[in-house]
């Protein structure tokens, strides 16, 4: 009995040794297979890697280095008085010091940050929702066959083709309280002039209107492309089954546009959240600071405040990036729950 038991133990130990050896062999084969696959991919697609490498290098220099530098400055007390600078023939070395997370504590504890954040979120939600709705309506209209459709498409795309600063300056002239065309039209109808850019409420309405006007063409073109990719047979079959126009829109159009819609909403949200030109060129953040958003506040810290606070501006910039990254992650997670791959 003892001999039989010892033989069983020895056999089990031998099996374990063989299993371990087999596992190590499979691991080595897998590692070598992965290495070999990577080498084959590099050898096969070397031309593609060579074409991509300069782009990656340029992006690293243009985006990566400023980002790292900005994060570093946000952890210091750098301002225009203690950074390295040259005055005439004299070079003054930097004297700013590392302060850790003090800047983040100061910004997050400042009521100004919450005020700017609330208005930035309101501005972004209003602009994106209105832009998407108008873009969807116009895309559905232009997806039908009617006379002069090409001319209407060109006219609606025109705001997108005009440089942004030109459009904003044109709208600033339209909103002028004394000589603006809008108030001239209202005056002709016996309506008192509206202080478009002088009243906080009207100023917020004005910047939203201008940003929507600039963003609708992109939204319309993207959604129109999505509409044209939906098979027409689906609409014909639904119409033969007695589906109403609203039912066809709800059960065919909206699901067919889901992938495009999710992408353009994400892009529009990021662009609007960081839309510096409209706010700065139209109202300069005014009247007062009623239309200041996070990016204009970061600009004000770096170029308007005295002394210019480079560390504070970098802190605002890093916080903006963090907020957008959190939004993108949450957005991606919600899409994956809905079965969308992104």
Element string (H = helix, E = strand): HHEEHHHHHHHHHHHH
Low-confidence region ranges: 1-14, 25-33
N- to C-terminal distance:
64 Å
Strand content: under 5%
What is the total tally of β strands?
A: 2
* Helix residue percentage: over 70%
Shape: globular
Mean pLDDT: 84
The helix count comes to 14
Strands of the widest sheet, in order across it, are: 1-2
The class by helix and strand makeup works out as mainly alpha
The largest sheet is: 2 strands, antiparallel
* Radius of gyration, whole Å: 30 Å
Index terms:
disordered N terminus; globular; 342 residues; mainly alpha
Structure at a glance:
This protein is mainly alpha-helical.
Describe this structure in words.
- There is one protein chain.
- With 342 residues, the chain is mostly helical.
- It is built from 14 helices and 2 strands; from the N terminus they run H-H-E-E-H-H-H-H-H-H-H-H-H-H-H-H.
- The protein has helices at residues 2-44, 46-73, 102-108, 111-142, 149-161, 164-174, 181-188, 200-228, 232-240, 245-256, 258-273, 276-282, 294-303, 310-337; strands spanning 85-87, 90-92.
- The protein has a two-stranded antiparallel sheet with strand order 1-2.
- A hairpin with a 2-residue loop joins strand 1 (85-87) and strand 2.
- Helix 4 (111-142) packs antiparallel against helix 11 (258-273), helix 6 runs parallel beside helix 12 (276-282) and helix 8 packs antiparallel against helix 11.
- The longest helix has 43 residues, at 2-44.
- The radius of gyration is 30 Å and the shape is globular.
- Residues 1-14 and 25-33 have low confidence and may be disordered.
């Amino acid at each position: 009995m003892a001999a039989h038991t010892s033989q069983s133990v020895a056999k089990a130990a031998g099996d374990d040794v063989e299993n371990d050896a087999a596992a190590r062999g499979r691991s080595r084969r897998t590692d070598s297979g992965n290495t070999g696959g990577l080498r084959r991919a590099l050898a096969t697609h070397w031309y593609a890697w060579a074409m991509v490498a300069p782009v990656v290098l340029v992006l690293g220099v243009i985006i990566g280095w400023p980002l790292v530098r900005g994060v570093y400055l946000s952890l210091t007390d750098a301002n225009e008085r203690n950074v390295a600078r040259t005055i005439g023939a004299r070079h003054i070395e930097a004297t700013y010091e590392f302060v850790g997370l003090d800047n983040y504590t100061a910004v997050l504890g400042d009521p100004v940050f919450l005020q700017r954040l609330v208005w930035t979120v309101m501005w972004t939600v209003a602009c994106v929702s209105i832009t998407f709705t108008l873009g969807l309506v116009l895309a559905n209209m232009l997806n039908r066959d009617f006379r002069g459709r090409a001319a209407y498409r060109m006219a609606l795309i025109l705001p997108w083709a005009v440089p942004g600063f030109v459009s904003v300056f044109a709208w600033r002239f339209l909103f002028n309280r004394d000589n603006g065309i809008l108030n001239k039209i209202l005056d002709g109808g016996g309506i008192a002039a509206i202080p478009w850019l002088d009243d906080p409420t009207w100023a917020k309405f004005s910047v939203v209107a201008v940003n929507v006007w600039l963003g609708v063409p992109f939204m319309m073109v993207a959604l129109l492309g999505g509409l044209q990719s939906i098979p027409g047979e689906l609409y014909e079959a639904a119409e033969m089954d007695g589906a109403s126009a609203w039912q066809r829109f709800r059960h065919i159009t909206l699901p067919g546009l889901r992938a495009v819609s999710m992408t353009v909403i994400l892009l529009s949200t990021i662009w609007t959240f960081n839309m510096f030109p409209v706010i700065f060129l139209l109202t300069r953040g005014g009247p007062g600071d009623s239309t200041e958003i996070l990016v204009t506040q970061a600009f004000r810290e770096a170029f308007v405040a005295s002394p210019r606070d480079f560390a504070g501006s970098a802190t605002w910039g890093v916080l903006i990036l963090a907020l957008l990254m959190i939004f993108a992650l949450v957005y991606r997670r919600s899409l994956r729950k809905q079965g969308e791959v992104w």
